[in-house]
Amino acid sequence: MANAAAFASFPTLDPDYVASVLASPPFVTVEGVFNIRDFGALRPSSHSDGPTPRRIRPLHLFRSGETSNITDRGIEQLRALGIRKVFDLRVDREIKRYATPNKPIDGVEYVRAPIQEDVWDPEEIPARLKQFELDEAAAFMQAYTQVLKGGVASLEQVLIHLRDQPDVPCLINCTAGKDRTGVFSALILSLLGANDEDIAADYGLTTAGLQPAIPMLTVRFQKDPIFTSNWPGTINMGSSKPENMRAFLDYVRREHGGVEDYLKAHTSLADDDFRRIRDNFLV
User: Fold this and answer.
1) Residue environment code for 15-39, b if the CB has 16+ CB neighbours within 10 A, otherwise e
2) Which of 7, 40, 240, 241 can bridge 58 by disulfide, Cβ–Cβ 3.0-4.6 Å?
3) Where are the alpha helices (DSSP H) in the chain?
4) Is the peptide bond between 122 and the residue preceding it cis, with omega within 30 degrees of 0?
């Protein structure tokens, strides 16, 4: 078991700064849910038919960490935001391991869209943590390319919803709302025309978004010998540096010709679907 000093290595930010960031767009408030924010608060999209750039439609697409600790007040705040569908990217093994099932909410549909079962294989985690310890950038690239390949069916589910049910606001989430959700968010934002710098900056906001959850996550990992046996790797795995997302977007463009080409090659979606999604979510 790691000692208390080791856990102090989790990065923390100035509380006043965090409070200011979390009280401002793109963050929204849902009590009991951390790292929750609105896609629609990002900058103008490059997809525009006129002189005025189009913006991503606000309050229709959200991202977050796990919702299992949502409070009664949080449920009312979630309803006030209009969220009616939640795409949960966590795997069953992960939910069971940490006893974090979703809380039933009237009027909200949970869609199980799990990806990366192997990430939570106890036999795989030590090697993954060792990689994060030795070469953080390479570890993130490997993890995110695995999400890209292993999560394409789940991503297609989300995109079909955005194409066919744009008036049903939805939330995409995983445990921290950082990696699987971060990759999905980056791909969707790129599809909607956001540039790499804005996408990477949005990804980097997770550093602030996770601050309220650090005590809970620390206790969770502290109870798990798999993580305490390689705390430096665990610390590195918890980072959200914009350069790691920029590198991933460069990879998608270099190896697959961009997000749209990748989706056309690996899903049933085509150019007309992408056009409909942009028409639905750009204003």
Assistant:
1) eeebeebbeeebbbebebbbbbbbb
2) 40
3) 4-7, 15-22, 72-81, 92-98, 125-134, 136-150, 152-164, 180-191, 196-204, 206-209, 214-222, 225-228, 231-237, 242-256, 259-266, 271-281
4) no
First to last CA, the chain: 52
The single-letter code of the amino acid at 164 is D
Cα–Cα distances in angstroms (integers) from residue 106 to residues 29, 90, 228, in the given order: 19, 21, 38
Report residue 142 CA to chain centroid gap: 16
For residue 150 the two structure tokens come to: 């292993």
- Which burial class, exposed, middle or buried, applies to 171 when counting CB atoms under 10 A from its CB (0-12, 13-18, 19+)? buried
C-beta separation of 135 from 237 below 8 A = no
**Position 74 pLDDT exceeds 90:** yes
Beta-ladder partners of 85: 109, 170
CA distances from 151 to 13, 57, 107, 116, 180 (A): 32, 25, 27, 7, 8
- Tracing tokens 């969220």 back to the chain, one arrives at 83
The model carries a pTM of 0.94
Mean pLDDT of 171-198: 96
DSSP state of 120: G
Look at residue 41 in the predicted model and tell me its pLDDT: 86
